[in-house]
Amino acid sequence: MNNPYQAPQAQLADAPEPTRPRQINFALVLMWLSLIGGAVYGVVDMADEPDQAAAILMIAFSGVIVLVSGVPLIFIALGHNWARWAWAALLLTGWVLTFVYWEESFATVGDILIQGFLGVLDAVAIYLLFAAPSAQWFKRARSR
Q1: CB-side neighbour CA atoms (13 Å) of 125
Q2: What's the mean pLDDT in 56-85?
Q3: Model's pTM, two decimal places?
Q4: How far is CA 115 from the centre of its chain?
Q5: I need a surface site. Which of 21, 34, 85, 122 has the fewest CB within 10 A?
Q6: What does the pLDDT average to over 104-121?
Q7: Cβ–Cβ under 8 Å, residues 41 and 118
Q8: What's the 3-state SS for the chain?
């Protein structure tokens, strides 16, 4: 029986989780490829270093870079907007350092090709993270 004096009844449900756009998934793949590719490149580049202590230090530093840089990638996948900006800042810092140490970064044709390829991967990934529909997804994920 319908009681006109009873408060309305409504079933409440959580809003569905916004699905992550394909562009973000593709950007994440590109960023992980670039990060791991850059680390492997750094380790291989250090293999012919005559100073073994410096080589070991640089290899350990590459591992730390992968760990520190991997954290924002995990949080990007979870929809944290700050991680997108942190990754952009890390990427910009890396590009600046690459050009500051121009002669070392681009010593051989192989260096130019590898650094250029990794730079293109990163540039495409950053574009995908900040363009639509990715930007809207981060805004919706932030409002949760």
Answers
A1: 26
A2: 90
A3: 0.79
A4: 17
A5: 85
A6: 88
A7: yes
A8: CCCCCCCCCCCCCCCCCCCCCHHHHHHHHHHHHHHHHHHHHHHHHHCCCCCHHHHHHHHHHHHHHHHHHHHHHHHHHCCCHHHHHHHHHHHHHHHHHHHHCHHHHCCCHHHHHHHHHHHHHHHHHHHHHHCCCHHHHHHHHHCC
Asked if 72 contacts 87 with a C-beta cutoff of 8 angstroms, the reply is yes
List the structure tokens of 48.
């012919």
Exposure string over 110-120, b if 16+ CB within 10 A, otherwise e = eeeebbeebbe
Separation CA 71–CA 86 (nearest Å): 10
CB 132 within 8 A of CB 101: no
